[in-house]
Structures are given as C-alpha cells and as structure tokens.
Amino acid sequence: MPAAGALFALLLVASIAGTIGLWYVIDRETDDNPRMDWSDAERAVRQDTDESGESDARTDVGDDWGSDAEWGVETDDRR
Fold first, then answer.
1. What 3-state class would DSSP assign to 4?
2. Cα 79 from Cα 57, distance rounded (Å)
3. What per-residue confidence (pLDDT) applies to 11?
4. Considering the domain boundaries, does residue 44 fall inside one?
5. Distance (Å, rounded) from C-alpha 1 to C-alpha 7?
6. Mean of the per-residue pLDDT values for the chain?
7. What is the spatial distance between Cα 46 and Cα 57, in angstroms, rounded to a whole number?
8. Looking at the domain assignment, is residue 9 inside a domain?
9. Is residue 37 in some structural domain?
10. Which band of pLDDT confidence, cut at 50, 70 and 90, is reported for residue 74?
C-alpha cells in the first residue's frame, strides 16, 4: 500500500509540474507579439499575395477539385 501512495504522490507532483511548465511555455510564447493592421496580418498569413495586396488569379478553370469525380464517387445505376 505504501507503493500506491508514493505513486499517487509522484503523479500529483508530475501533473502540477506539467501544468506549471505548460503555463510557462505558453506565457513565453505569447510575449512580444507583433502588432499589425488587418491587411498586414492577412498578408502575413497568406503567402500567395504580393506587397501591393493583389492576389494571383487562378487560371485553371477546368479543375474539378472537391467534385464527385475527384473523390471517386460513382453514380448509382440501380434505378
């Protein structure tokens, strides 16, 4: 029975230390976040835009991404 108590104490200390460690890592990660306006933030997230804010227009009109043909869905011919 003393082994179970020692295991419980060890798990309790580990969980508290893990919580404090996670809090510390999150706190350090969120220090000194850059402040930017809306358009700069969108440009930072979307790497497919240039400095003028114009995005490259896609020219592949014929692609059928997400269609049934893309996913291999076949029609039901049992009617």
1. helix
2. 42
3. 97
4. no
5. 10
6. 77
7. 14
8. yes
9. no
10. low
> In the Cβ-directed half-sphere of 43, how many Cα atoms lie within 13 Å?
12
Residue 79 · residue 73 · CB < 8 Å: no
8-state DSSP, 49:
B
CA separation for the pair 79, 10 (Å, rounded): 65
Amino acid symbol at 11: L
Residue 4 lies in domain:
1-31
Place of tokens 């592949």: 60
The count of structural domains within the chain is: 1
Give domain status of residue 19, yes or no: yes
Lowest mean pLDDT across 9-18, 27-36, 48-57 = 48-57
Four-CA torsion 6, 8, 13, 19, nearest 10 degrees = 160
Tokens of 69: 């043909």
